[in-house]
Task: structure prediction
Amino acid sequence: MKPQTSTAPSTGRHAAEHELLVRELERRIEILENLEDSSFGNFTMLDWVFCIIAFLILPHIFLWMFV
Amino acid sequence: MNPAASQPDAGQLIRQESVFGRLPLLPQEREYGPWGAHATCFAYAVATWCFLIGGYAASWVGAVQGIVCLIGGNLVGVFLTTMPLSLGCQRYGLEQIEYCKSSFGQRGSKLVLVFYIINMLGWTGLILVMFGNGIRNIVRALGYEPAGWVVGAGVGLGLWLSYLLVTRGVHLLNITNAIIAPGLGLLSVFMFYMLIQKYGWQAILQAPPLDPGPDPLINYFIVFEMGVASGFSWWGGIGFLARNTRKRRDAVYPEILQLGLFMSVVCCVSLFSALVVKTADPTEWMVPLGGVVMGVLALIFVALANVTSSAVSLYATGLSLRHLRSLRFAPWWVVIAWTIVPCLPFVFWPHDLYDLGDTFLAYNGTMYAPLSGILFADYFFLRKQRLNLWSLFDDDPKGEYHYSYGFNWVAVGCLVLGQFVYLSMYNPLTSETHYLFRFMPASMAACVVPGLVYWGLMRILNAVSDSPPRLRTQHRRLNSPNI
Result:
């Protein structure tokens, strides 16, 4: 069944392009949904601790040191 | 290059729509490893707006406090805005407006788009006034007294040049950026060297602020707020960079270090220059610092840099306008022409609008701080870093992110709440502050409060499904694709 497109264009060329994009979009979603999280690299608890200390806590400590 | 060029073949169309458009990027299509991400973020960070921010800071505080506020504030703002966007956009290959649909709804994300466009066009206008000021100061350095309309005419010329650059091709834009970003970095080093040579470190440290308010403590916190808000104002560029990275750390650290740390270092050089030359206008430092020949050359270079910076903004705005149905398939030049219209007031009232630059920075805080808080709570605490891609691209009213008529009113309400919190703590137009402003920057409060309220209300309303998205979305097709 042809999908009911909310942004479907009216002219012939654009309609063909749009249908191609929809098919490609579905293919990509399928791939991305099925990829394991680990294939996108790690961001561990240690990264979080480092980021919170370096980019959130330390700037505030320095702020109050120079009041 | 027109992102939706005429009559491309299928492969070309798909590549254009993935790289420049809205198709999610697959891991093998992504361009940036760690070095590529650092280089791109550096090119993005070191732009002429650094000179503007440093100049504005010099009005309120001296060098030491300015360093603390600009570096510290920027890091805090970039960190809070980067984390949900970077990790979310990187995992799913999305650009940021698409990503916002999970929390704001299919139509609600268009509200965010409006914020984004105002932000980009505001920066474009300010940068082009700097371009106009540069032309005026070049004429002055050559011994002539320019007429008052020169700056406005300069803005008009800058808009025209930016339009040509954006409509002639992204390749041309990439080439000019490859020259301009390192050039601005070198210019900053040169300016710092000349500052030390000419004035000395002691003079920089002792230089008083240009136009401070009566309470030094409040001045200090206002500049910290300015730093945090300028960090938040990177919101618009983060998704674009993150979706192009292959690994999570490549999405997070380059953005925080380049957009947060290195950008503020360049801001600090402009802060020092403004303090010793005693003007907040960056185009007035070059001749006193470098002499007539070097100064005029530097001014010409900065003027060119302003055009490429504004062209990048117009380009990004043009891409985001593709989200609007009426402009989805419009010719690229028409889309860019529409981005220029809201910049026209800068042609007629350049000085009045330029003087509101620090207010504009604060305005970025009112927009992006609550947005960042909501996205933080949504992505990490409610959705546990899992999005439903099928629902993001589906306008079906039964979709997970359709909410009520396409709007998640909880998120929209929290966004308004964030702006109310911000303006209660700090009024950027009058510089009036609440007592609590001494303990927490307005942007931080405007980020944390809506984030917490959003998290609480969404839990109470049970608006986020507990089952993993993959289980909910197997073997689905898009019923009403919104690409």
User: Anything to note?
Assistant: Helices of chain A lie at 12-34, 45-65. The first helix of chain A runs from residue 12 to 34.
